[in-house]
Amino acid sequence: MTDAAELRRRTEELLAAHPPAATERLDFLRARFDAGLAWVHFPEGLGGLGLPRSLQAVVDAELEAAGAPDNDPRRIGIGLGMAAPTILQYGTEEQKRRFLRPLWTGEEVWCQLFSEPGAGSDLAALGTRAVREGEDWVVNGQKVWTSSAHLARWAILIARTDPDVPKHRGITYFVCDMTDPGVEVRPLRQITGEAEFNEVFLTGVRIPDAHRLGEVGDGWRVAQTTLNNERVAIGGMRLPREGGMIGPVSKTWRDRPELRTHDLHQRLLKLWVDAEVARLTGERLRQQLVAGQPGPEGAGMKLAFARLNQEISGLEVELRGEEGLLYDDWTMRRPELVDFTGRDAGYRYLRSKGNSIEGGTSEVLLNIVAERVLGLPAEPRTDKDVAWKDLAR
Q: What does 268-310 look like in DSSP terms, one character per residue?
């Protein structure tokens, strides 16, 4: 079964058995997953049908037309875009069946415990330790910049399990229960006034070996799957024309002719074209994903996403003049998602400053594009063959 017509028939059967207007939202999402219509490119029994990724659009269009609920993908983006593909590639069958269904339905929110105060851009230098004790690993350390940690039930975690080998080779990848004793989440208030990020302290946290993803010491390779998917999820999201940050500033330009100047017009035209090029490039990247896993090209998309958001939001503040200096709400709160287009110009301007840091700094991504896409020589490294314990810190 590979054609769109058969997929539409299956979708119609789902809608007939579970009419959206008469079915509880969570019940509908569970039924959709069990019917293999959650992500059709996943294997049967894991929310999919083993079909080409491109056919997902057929299902989504039919369900949207019928008014069916979605799984609020912005709220659970880390689970969908990062944890799920990593679990699918490296998880055991038991792990896949335990985690993927509640992840997709949104019953369980996920976060990412990767970055540390001393290991952000140089992530492989991380110092959080995991020591084996019987069938458990005891984890101690600190993570930072953790989106949604205050909401999450589960986390994808990398920790150092062997300090006697070079830094990339002594890392292991785990799934951490955020409700376990020893997990402490503290808010990090940002320039926007909100605290969507957190710092997480891990003190004697026991993780069963059954929650390890991949082999011991192979965590860096597993993490690359997560990071490649993260960059695509951030920079390659599907948008309509004038979707994203270019939409509000374009609307202001059309609605407020008294704000226009020749210089602003020229800058807006350039950014509008850049945004459209980025949107179409994202479409091409998603087509490439049909044939396999995301590669380093996602780094280029994430780079463009950060630059465009910062330049567009800066232009919007200038266009609005004195209005652009206003800020709607500085209340300290811990939101469930980042809403770029639902807030005012001041929020967009401030929040976009983080786009060149989160999900990989622009400086690191430039290196990835240079070395892995363009094939340029790698930068000299003096720590490649030095044991982690002997590195200067």
A: HHHHHHHHHHHHHHHHHHHHHHTTS---THHHHHHHHHHHHHH
